[in-house]
Amino acid sequence: MPLTRDQISKINTCVTQVLTNNLSDGKFIDSIVKKIIKNVADIKKELQNSIILLEKENKDWRERSDALKQYSRRNNIRIFGVSEEAGEKVESRRLNGQAAR
Q: What's the pTM value of the predicted model, to 2 decimals?
């Protein structure tokens, strides 16, 4: 059932009075500000914790990446002045009478 103009007017008047009374009361505004400050502080704390976790995770991934890069470089040593042969197994090649390890 739709509202009449008189009912809408009464509702508007009532809402206006409630808002006017509450907004003119300093305690009401202070309580709202305190709640907002608390919420912002909570969000800030959560974000700081997330940043700490992400920085740690980033460090771990960088260390893993570096370890993988070092591992892949292990067999990439180039020695100039030593001839290469086709199909040669470098691991068994002798240098100065010593077997390569």
A: 0.49
